[in-house]
Design brief:
Elements lengths: L3 E10 L4 E12 L15 E14 L2 E15 L43 E16 L4 E18 L9 E21 L3 E22 L1 H8 L26 H14 L6 H10 L4 E25 L2 E22 L5 H9 L3 H11 L32 E21 L2 E9 L18
Antiparallel strand pairs: 1-2, 2-3, 3-4, 4-5, 5-6, 6-7, 7-8, 8-9, 9-10, 10-11, 11-12
Helix pairs in contact: 2-3, 4-5
């Protein structure tokens, strides 16, 4: 697939005590799943990376400074359906098969994420410092400090079919800071070290999505092929996109969903609700996280006798965590989400909600309308006042330890035993509310 990789490494002494090293890599490979709608093949790779290192060795003291940067720009991931054939969204003609690695008909709508194409765009960089000092042949000090940062966004056609039922993205950014200090003592009979580590991480993950509610309704009712509107069309072949803008067709689908709930919906009301279904309903959720951790540790090993050594270690860890979450509908309420939510309500509430959803412009009607309609989502429900951030803090600490023993039977064989106590830190878990405006 026209793949290639170029590696380059240069080592350069700058004097008796100092040297530098620079390494880089360029890697590229075409995708192996053809894009049947035109454009770059899916699952391609394009990566560029560089790392620079400086080493200063001055007798008992050594210091390494390492910096790295990497940029990845991969073509779209082929989330290809194996239940539906790829079809032309305009004509409905079958243009591929359901093979796992054969061509896929996927695309990102121009209205989603400012028109970004399918694919990944990511940057990662960091810097690390490592210092060692030998006070004597027996005593040494080691220090490590590092900083890492990443930012990346990936757009993907999550439904895997040629119609725009669901387009999604992951926009993730974060940074990490770490520092550790360790003092080590060793001789012929005894090795021990003590030290501490500090770690901090900040980040967020934003996951926007866009639904064509008309297509999503057809997928929900297993009518992507037109549900009989196109005689003889197999269930595996999605119909042209234009069919789903026909309110007579989508109105019948709404009547079928209502009937499954035991609700009789008139054709007039069904078509009025169908006319409000959105071709590009957008919503998003974002979760935030911050962690600070401290560790203090010590470990010792004794050579008790010829071939026999025993040891043990203990560590105290403390975590301070903050987690936040928000979710929102970005361009008005979901009509399909509101419709499904209404069907589960008591009769009086259901009747009022269905009537409000049939009013022209219901997606953006104010919540102070004659009958207020919540800001319904489809894939998730908005938090608080539509995107309100909720957060919580948590602190957790505890000890872990281990005991070890090893006996050398001969230069070729030994036996050993380890008993250890682990720790699973407590976590904060977040998710979208169950109802609009919840927390």
């Amino acid at each position: 697939f026209n793949g290639y990789r170029i590696d380059e490494t240069v080592n350069l002494p700058l004097g008796g005590d100092v040297g530098i090293r620079v390494a880089s890599r360029i890697k590229q490979r075409d995708g192996y799943v053809a894009n049947l709608l035109g454009g770059e093949a899916f699952n391609g790779i394009k990566s560029e990376a560089v790392r620079g290192s400086l080493r200063w060795a001055l007798g008992a003291f050594t210091f390494d400074l390492i910096g790295n940067y990497q940029h990845d720009k991969a073509s779209g991931t082929s989330f290809k359906s194996i239940a539906y054939n790829p079809t032309d969204p305009v004509t409905g003609a079958v243009i591929g098969d359901r093979g796992r690695t054969s061509g896929a008909a996927l695309a990102s709508p121009g209205s989603f994420e400012r028109g970004r194409p399918l694919g990944l765009d990511r940057d990662v960089w960091g810097v690390t410092g490592i210092a060692n000092y030998d006070f004597s042949p027996n005593l040494s000090l080691n220090a490590i400090g590092s900083y890492r940062k990443f930012a990346g966004i990936e757009i993907f056609d999550a439904d895997g079919i040629s119609l725009p039922a669901l387009t999604a993205a992951e926009d993730a950014q974060g940074n990490q800071t770490m520092g550790t200090l360790r003092l080590t003592w060793k001789n012929d009979r005894f090795t021990a070290f003590v030290g501490g580590t500090y770690f901090r991480e900040n980040g967020f993950q934003r996951t926007p999505s866009q639904f064509d509610e008309r297509v999503a309704l057809a997928r929900l009712t297993n009518a992507l092929n037109g549900g009989g509107a196109i005689p003889g069309r197999p269930a595996s072949d999605p119909a042209p996109l234009a069919l789903f803008s026909n309110t007579a067709f989508t109105g019948q689908l709404l009547q079928g969903v209502a009937g499954a709930y035991g609700v009789a919906l008139s054709s007039a009301q069904a078509q009025a609700i169908a006319a409000n279904l959105k071709s590009g309903h957008q919503e998003t959720s974002t979760n935030y996280g911050r962690t600070e951790s401290w560790d203090l540790f010590g470990d010792v090993t004794f050579n008790v006798a010829e071939g026999l050594e025993i040891g043990g270690g203990i560590r105290w860890s403390h975590d301070a965590k903050t987690t936040g979450f928000s979710s929102a509908v970005s361009n008005g309420r979901s009509i399909l989400g509101g419709f499904i939510g209404a069907l589960a309500q008591p009769a009086a509430t259901r009747t009022a909600l269905l009537g409000a959803l049939a009013v022209p412009g219901a997606a953006n009607s104010p919540t102070s309308a004659p009958y207020p309609v919540p800001l319904f989502g489809l894939g998730l429900q908005p938090s608080g006042s539509n995107g309100q951030l909720y957060s919580a803090d948590h602190k957790d600490s505890g000890f872990t330890w281990r005991a070890t023993a090893k006996y050398e039977i001969s230069p070729e064989a030994n036996v050993y035993a380890t008993y250890a106590r682990g720790r699973r830190p407590e976590i904060l878990s977040v998710s979208a509310p169950a109802a609009p405006g919840g927390l």
